[in-house]
Amino acid sequence: MVRTSSRRGFLRDLAACFGAVPAVLSGSEPAGVGNAALVSGTWVLQQASSVRELETARSQWLDTALRTPALRGFCLRVPWRAIDQDLSLLESGQAIARRYHVDYSIRFMAGRHAPTRVFDKGCPYYTKRGPKGDLEKVPAPFGRDGSPNAAFEQEYEALVTRLAPWCRAQEVHLLHLAWYGQDWAELNHGREVRALPGYTFENWLQAHQRLVDIGLKHAGEGLAVELPFSGYGPCWEAAGMLADHVIAKIGPSRPLFFCQANGWGPKGDWGAPNPETEARFDQVWKRPICRGQQMIQPRDYDWLVVFQKLYENQATYCEVYAPSFTLEHKAQLAEEVRKFADHCRKTPPLPGKR
User: How confident is the model over 294-314, as a mean pLDDT?
Assistant: First the structure.
């Protein structure tokens, strides 16, 4: 990866690799146009809740995955509470990325992973059984009267306001954000949320639009933000509305913001329960919004079939779980990573641009 002390020099060096100087340097394009080149390609995805857990993953499969040629980078997924007091876990992940000379991106999860202090400040919530059988608090997107969850939104914005400058200082060009969530960072429109006092679809949707707006405050040249548009519960209609909200805010096909489909696999992109719902989610792809894709599971697949979806969807980047790089079809996976890198090198994929 090219390193330089000058941001303008960095972008010029990067542009030379892609055969042209981005127009943003001459001021003829809006901010963020160079972000597609900075994030395109395949990322290795690994989740960890502590430095110790990250080191264990290194010895099991992460080191092997990061030796794959032509990778874009390493994405570390963490619980919000794991980085609430300090960023040592993120720094450890960055050190690993640097060791293998790949780029680095970060994502956090809210939901049941939100810090206790957020709830102590009055964040409305419901409870559910966690993986260990204990009751865990999950933030609600609204109060009992349908009003905004001000406590959550204030703490969420404080976190993003802290992470975005860190990303810029460390040359991290893709900051993955979370929704209110439940188990993951994805949309949560499940039965638990729809049963809460104060729920209406409009209250739920507006709460998520406000999180989009928080993220967009921090996006610009050199730093894109992402939110997943797949999720739990009936949310295909909301995915389209959220895409429309983004486009209304920043315009079409601008890589300041990426929507992500986290159900990418042999059966589709969204992890939907049936083909009809999958097709409804696919309406997002008809909108001029930049997109990425995340594998649905850390398993083995026919990677030729899976990667073909990236080209069909004009995805700028993809994420593959680290364990997949150690399984039976790892050679095929490595070849598809190389081919996608070559494709991105010619022209970073963006919707509406072939």
Answer: 98
